[in-house]
Amino acid sequence: MLRAVMAGCGAMSNGWLRAIRETPALAAEVEVVGLVDLDESVARARGAEHGLDVPVGADLGAMIDMVRPDAVFDLVVPPARAGVVELALARGCHVLSEKPLATSMEEARRLLAAAERAGRIHGVVQNRRHLPGIRRVRALLASGALGELTAIHSDFFIGAHFGGFREEMDHVLLLDMAIHTFDQARFLSGLDAARVYCRETNPQGSWYRHGAAAEALFDMERGVAFTYRGSWVAEGANTAWEASWRIVGTRGTVLWDGNEGIEAHRVAGGEGFFRPLEEVPVPETDLPAEGHAGVILDFARALREGRRPLTDARDNIRSLAMVFGAIRSAEAGAPMPVEGTDLERTTA
């Protein structure tokens, strides 16, 4: 069993604890042995809600020293992330963090260096990688059935009324949401971004203070284009949270609604103004756990098996770099390079 302390017991912790309790494969792999929150009463209430008879406290260092966990589950707010991760790594714990990995590229590089020094794994929650739809589309692309990849197009349009801190954020869509879609594009294609041109707006009627919509064009490796269109103030016809996709190869195209709606066709003849097409079967997939449960299970199994998890921070920094590249481009009104392509590439 992976013994873990959970740091940050706000609303997000409910989903983690429910996933651990209700996913049989995960319940057999992970044990939460301590709860930490700056408000100790919040940690105590969360433990009671989920039937956990474990120590609670407000001091993460003291909790680690007391229960000696294998890992820390980091669910704190982004500005506090670096301090929590560095403390946990320095005390010999592996860490699985909620996204984002860091609040800047400089901070992200510092956390990667800290994990390297400690000889520990730092994973990041990118739960879209552990959903059936994306695994099926990824397998289709990897099979070569559509030929060589040439373009990836994604649309994310949701009228999301969160209230609270998001409505006061700068670059709210790019910082808080777009990394999911950017990471999906990298996961689907196996390619990194080299350059980006991004336009960011706050449309009329927006209930956000800044940056509720954006369009971005990324130059990916091997000459592949990736386009992103997104808005958090698009009422009336929501896409999936996983976005909707058109992915084009030299022999055909796959349309994916972000869930289980997948339709693929390829050229089946060499004559005619529009070449004849044939439907391409999309591979099935079998996941031991999905979403957050899938991320946590993969993290636990990776530690047991001596490998890196699918959402290792050394990979995730390349998705984070796309976010900050897009922000820099939007602020400058000009194309910008995407940092991170100099980093060592890792695969799970």
How would you describe the overall organization of this protein?
With 348 residues, the protein is α/β, with parallel strands linked by helices. It has two domains: 2-128 and 291-308, 3-Layer(aba) Sandwich (Rossmann fold), CATH 3.40.50.720; 132-286 and 319-337, Dihydrodipicolinate Reductase, domain 2 (2-Layer Sandwich). Helix content is 36%, strand content 23%. It contains ten helices and 15 strands. The protein has a nine-stranded mixed sheet, with helices on one face. A six-stranded parallel sheet has the order 3-2-1-4-5-6, with helices on both faces. The chain is globular. The two termini are 21 Å apart.
Map the helices and strands.
Layout: E1 2-7, H1 11-22, H2 24-27, E2 30-36, H3 40-49, E3 56-57, H4 60-67, E4 71-74, H5 78-90, E5 94-97, H6 105-118, E6 122-124, H7 132-143, E7 149-157, H8 172-189, E8 193-201, E9 213-220, E10 225-231, E11 244-249, E12 252-256, E13 262-267, E14 277-279, H9 291-305, H10 313-332, E15 336-337
Parallel strand pairs: 1-2, 1-4, 2-3, 4-5, 5-6, 7-10
Antiparallel strand pairs: 7-11, 8-9, 8-15, 9-10, 11-12, 12-13, 13-14
Pfam family, one: GFO_IDH_MocA
InterPro entries: Gfo/Idh/MocA-like_OxRdtase_N, Gfo/Idh/MocA_oxidoreduct, GFO_IDH_MocA-like_dom, NAD(P)-bd_dom_sf
GO molecular function, one term: oxidoreductase activity
